[in-house]
Each structure stands twice: as structure tokens, then as C-alpha cells.
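Handout, page 2. Input:
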Amino acid sequence: MTKHSSSMHRVPSSGAVEHGYPSGHLGHLTEHEEHAFVEFKALIEEKGLYKPGNPPSHDDPTILRYLRARRWVPEDAYAQFSATEKFRGANEIEVLYDTIDVESFEATRRLYPRFTGRRDKRGIPIYVYQIRHLDSHVVSKYEKSTETTYSRAKTDGKTQPKLLQLFALYENLTRFVQPLASECTDRPHADTPITLSTNIVDISHVSLRMFWNLKAHMQAASQLATAHYPETLDRIFIIGAPMFFSTVWGWIKRWFDPVTVSKIFILSDHDVLPVLTSFMHMKDIPKHYGGELEWDFFDDPAYDDEIKRICQWENGYTEFPRGPMYWLPIDDGKRIECLAVGSNGSTDRRERVCTITKAYPPKSTADTLVSTTVSQTDDATEDEETFVTPPEKTVLNGEVPTANVAALSITEAN
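Output:
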């Protein structure tokens, strides 16, 4: 790791880091954001891309992701939303996720960030990505296997199979992990849905040659995800950065939009634990990074106690199975059910795993507009995240400025 007197290196930004979750999310919209929200919903309904109802074709948290990504400009958000809907339809993404071979799905998970089963102090799910496992042999073998992966989805013939399987993982994030995290009430702003993820990216023991060999693989994945799953990433902590990382950073920063770049923090070895513990409890940080969690990269998620508490298991299940899953509303939205889907040997799987009684069931109105107008300039409450942007100076050949660790803090809820 490069050595600098400053404790954290971060990318400068005017983006969402300084006004992060829950600002810009349901229940925490400014008057301007609320107006843009109403205008955007009317626009996509007029264009035939959104149908209100119970349930609507798209939920409010999903719609807000596009507005946040496009700085609350409805026309710009519409352009991205429309392109995504066209892409999803042309590649039958929902059919892909519903019918993908379970083992192929699990093989894809081994090449991308993995959910630990834990959440940070705000309730946002924690993912870990260890790059060192992606040598050229592993990636080549995986890419070849994707050409014959079973799924009933038809494609546009333009998107590579390896990238379509990546979309199955993003479907898992947005349709299984985030809704599950949203139902946990042991967090600040428990009535505000979770639509983000916190990521630890471990690039230790990775050579420059390996980065170069992975460049195309990671670039395509990053750009497609940014285009079609906007605003699903929150903090990205990069650890184990080698001396040559300033060179690699020159490529990486061009793969993301400025708001996403603003959320990337490069930590020196001695600052990994101090910074992570400002965002996460020790019990939720893997031991490999100085925490207490018995979890390694290829392990299944180690679900926390709150997740176990809210799940009412059915059909003989006592834990979540492997493979794709998602949640559907039942009992007029008062509960949600988890369905295990995918396929085993071309035989479809569709089994109810558990149900959860919603802590905040939908209101009686058919199309709920959630609105508690707050100012982004208001002082943060004791449960909220605080971020003070310190003076910055240039390091790493001028590529990555520094910031004081003390400037990043989250105050735990009492």
C-alpha cells in the first residue's frame, strides 16, 4: 500500500456523499425533489412506461433512483429510465432471473461482490469483493460456461451472455437483498426503504498485469450496471491498494459517473478498521478486515439476528437457499413472501421460503406519495450520517486527493 501521512484518500466530488442517505429518499425529499418526483412519475406514465395501481408497475424507491442519478432533472431521468426499460424488455431480464440455472447463478456470484448477510449502521447491506480470485484462467472458464447457461429468456443478441448473468446478480440486490434490508427495523429511519449497498473492495495481492487482464471484464460490467441499475451503490471502500494503483485509478474513474466516483474511498492499511467501524459494527465486519464476523469470501451470507427475527419460515425452510430469490406482496401488501426461483436441470423452481409481516404496510391510497419535506441543509440528527468535507490536497501523482478520517462519521442510534 502506498504510504502517506494522510489517513484516507478519496476522490473529490460535488456528488451525493455529502448529502447521503436518507437525503433524497422517501420521506426525506426537499420541496424541489418532491416536485421533480411528481413530474417524473407523470412523465413516465404519459409515455406508457409506468402504470399506477396496487401494486404499481414500478415502486417509488426504484423511480427515485433514476432521479437521484440524474440530479433531479425529470427529462434526463426519463432518458435513462426509458433506455433501461427497453434493454430489460429486449433481454427479458425478469425471465432470465426467474429461470436461470441455480448453479450458473452461484458461479456468477463467485466473480462479483458477495453479500455478507450483514448491514452497516444505517441498515444498508454490506458486500465484499476480493479481486485476487479473478485470474485469467478463472474468468475465461466462467465466460465460456455462460454461453450454454440455461434460461428461457430471449436476448437482443447484442449483450454478451457473461454480462446478462451479471444482471441476475443486480436483480438479486434490488429484488431480494434491498427489500429484505428495508424490512429490518433496528436502524435509523426504519420507515425509509433501502436502495443502496455498501461495498468493501479488496485489491490486495493483485498485480498490474492482472488488473490489465481484467480491465475489459470490469469496465463492461461497471458501465452496464451504472446505466441500468443507477444509485444502488453507496460507499465503496477500496483496501489493499498497491503502489501502482494511481495508474489503475486512471482507468477506473472513467467507468463511473461523477456521483459514483464521489463515493469511492481508498484506505491505507492502518485506517481500514477505524474507517469501517465508523460505518459498521465490529460484529458485522469480517475477521479478515479486523472485525468479529466469521465469514470468508466464498461463504454463503451470514444473516444477522434482525433478519432471522423477522422471517417466518415455511415449507420446511429454516434459512435462505442458494440461487435467485425475490419478494412479492401478499395480503393486500400487509406481508411479503420470499420466492426461491431459478431452475435445476431445466426444471423451474418456485417455492415459498418465508414471509415477513411488513413493519410499515402501504397506506390505503392506491398510489402513495411519501413526502416529509426536509432541507438538505438541516443539521443532522443524532441518528443521521454527518459528513464534513475537509481541505483536500493532492497525492498519488495528483490523481487522488486526501481526506481526514475524522471527517467521516456515523453516530450510532441510541
